[in-house]
Design a protein that fits this description.
This protein has helices at residues 9-31, 41-70, 81-98, 103-120, 132-141, 168-181, 200-209, 238-245, 271-276, 292-301, 307-310, 313-317, 335-347, 350-360, 367-374, 471-491; strands spanning 125-126, 129-130, 155-162, 188-192, 215-219, 248-254, 259-260, 278-282, 323-331, 380-381, 388-392, 403-407, 410-413, 419-423, 442-444, 448-450, 459-463, 467-468. By secondary structure, the chain is α+β, with helices and mostly antiparallel strands. The protein has a domain at 388-491. A seven-stranded mixed β-sheet has the order 5-4-3-6-9-8-10, sandwiched between helices. A six-stranded antiparallel β-sheet has the order 16-17-12-11-15-18, with no helix packed on it. It has a three-stranded antiparallel β-sheet with strand order 7-14-13. α13 (335-347) crosses α15 (367-374). One of its GO terms (biological process) is protein O-linked glycosylation. Keywords: Glycoprotein, Glycosyltransferase, Membrane, Signal-anchor, Transferase, Transmembrane, Transmembrane helix.
């Protein structure tokens, strides 16, 4: 009986080689475009089929876009967070598909998609022309445009600080720390909403606080149409628009009262950011089952939660607050992140924030993860929920008794579990005493929060694992406080 074992090893190798050579010849004759071979019927059929598929793909996109134009979303913001997100996700797949087509093939359909985006997000245009995010999309679609506001990215990455007169003092503290203590090499851009938001005098003070480092100033009202935004009166609402308007491709967006233990450039080295293009930080774990209507609404709008949301304790165990938006890092070169940011901008537009976003949640803080989640954009949270940097209130002399660390700030660590930043400013309690600074001594993370009863009362984290700030960390904060006191005096920043 014949078996493969009956063939010699040499015969098997020769047979395999002959089969392989014939396969190569067959493939070469059927698919080659070399001029000395005649085009085969199979090749013509393949080419024709491919072209038909391309045209049908474009036609399907055109029909879908026309449907969105003909049947716009309901004029009920609270009901359309999720649906707008899914439509935006579909827009992304269309844009990505059209990027691979020739200009003459996609011109009509690309133009229709452009009009659809402008109608859904009318603030993307301004009197100076289309904005940078819309220009980015138009470039992908091959649509020409004239604009004075959509400049090429000035740098691959930079720090963006939205501020106005109300937060000017803390912005000066932050900029003094970044330029004098951390000596960051990243460019810094301050974004504001017109002269009434941040005066020319305020802008001069920011430049002075930078101690010779040039700070770029950007009036966001020159970039976006403010008719439906009203950013000068929106407080936190300016933040996503600052990120979108910035001339940096990768944006480290900071609240004015952010405080750093490390150079913010460290954020760009975090694996989670480089994997997804968007890095967010968790708030404190508080008030389990405290806001059932909020939770029900989230679950109603997010029909298909991502793995990032599926592992959230706020989502699965119904804690009340998910995001600390005092620091957000985004890479706008990624289309999904860019479109997620546009959804976040919509959530912070005038009507939507006043009717929904800021009523159901506190300010802009939850709009970030919701925007990325709703649009199917990749994003990641730092794995820990918010910790604390402050002062130890109990002596750790009893292993059975929890130790408390108390303050008014929320702290965060990097991927190596080292303190990275906290929000709340350098003052011990900015809501009560405008002149008292004090270097914290201890920190905690992944323990139990006990919220203070009012803004005058410290919040505490209690647990058995407490860490003392290192001498280096204390030294950084002391130098930052010294820089803050210096600009307070020189620039007359302390309120009277």
């Amino acid at each position: 009986m014949f078996t493969f074992q009956s063939l010699g090893a040499r015969s098997v190798k020769i047979t395999a080689l002959i089969v392989f050579v014939w396969l190569l010849i067959a493939v070469f004759y059927n698919y080659t475009n070399v001029s000395f071979f005649t085009t085969t019927p199979l090749q013509n059929t393949y080419k024709g089929t491919y072209e038909n598929v391309k045209l049908k793909s474009i036609e399907s996109i055109r029909l879908g876009a026309q449907y969105f134009v003909d049947y716009p979303l309901k004029d009920e913001p609270k009901e359309i967070f999720g649906e707008l997100g899914q439509r935006t996700q579909l827009l992304r797949t269309w844009i990505e598909e059209l990027e691979s087509h020739e200009p003459n093939e996609k011109k009509e359909t690309a133009g229709l998609i452009g009009k659809l985006i402008e109608s859904q997000f009318p603030w993307l245009n301004s009197k100076n022309g289309i904005s940078p995010p819309l220009a980015n999309i138009y470039d992908r679609l091959g649509i020409s445009y004239n604009t004075a506001s959509a400049k090429p990215y000035a740098a691959a990455a930079g720090i963006v600080i939205p501020t106005g007169e109300k937060t000017l003092r803390f912005a000066c503290h932050l900029i003094a720390s970044l330029t004098q203590v951390h000596k960051t090499s990243l460019p810094i851009q301050v974004v504001y909403a017109g002269d009434n938001d941040l005066s020319a005098q305020g802008r001069r003070k920011i430049q002075q606080a930078a101690n010779g480092v040039n700070i770029e100033m950007l009036d966001v009202l020159t970039v976006f149409s403010d008719k439906s935004l009203k950013l000068a009166e929106g407080g936190w609402a300016i933040k996503p628009f600052a990120a979108l308007a910035s001339h940096y491709e990768k944006v480290i967006l900071l609240d004015a009262d952010a405080v750093f233990f490390q150079d913010p450039e460290r954020l760009l080295q975090q694996d989670r950011f480089n994997e997804t293009g968007a890095l967010l930080f968790h708030d404190r774990l508080l008030w389990k089952n405290g806001f059932p209507d909020r939770q029900d609404w989230w679950h109603d709008q997010i029909k298909h939660p991502s793995p990032e949301t599926d592992k959230s304790l706020v989502w699965t165990e119904r804690y009340s607050e998910e995001g600390d938006s005092g620091l957000v890092v985004v890479d706008k070169s990624r289309l999904d992140v860019l479109l997620g940011l546009i959804h976040i901008g919509w959530q912070n537009s005038d009507r939507v924030r006043n009717e929904v976003t800021y009523k159901i949640t506190y300010g802009d803080k939850e709009s970030w993860w919701i925007g990325f989640e709703a649009t199917g954009s990749k994003y990641s949270f730092s794995p820990h929920y918010g910790g604390i940097v402050g002062w130890m209130k109990d002596k750790p002399n009893d292993k059975k008794k929890d130790v408390r660390v108390c303050s008014f700030v929320i702290a965060h660590v990097d991927q190596d579990e080292k303190l990275l930043w906290y929000n709340g400013g350098l003052l011990k309690n900015k809501a009560v005493n405008q002149t008292e600074f004090e270097v914290p001594t201890h920190w905690m993370i992944d323990q139990t929060w006990h919220k203070g009863g009012s803004k005058k009362d410290m919040s505490c984290m209690a647990g058995k694992i407490v860490n003392e700030l290192s001498s280096v960390e204390k030294g950084i904060l002391k130098r930052a406080i010294d820089a803050a006191k210096d600009v307070d005096e020189k620039l007359d920043l302390i309120p009277t």
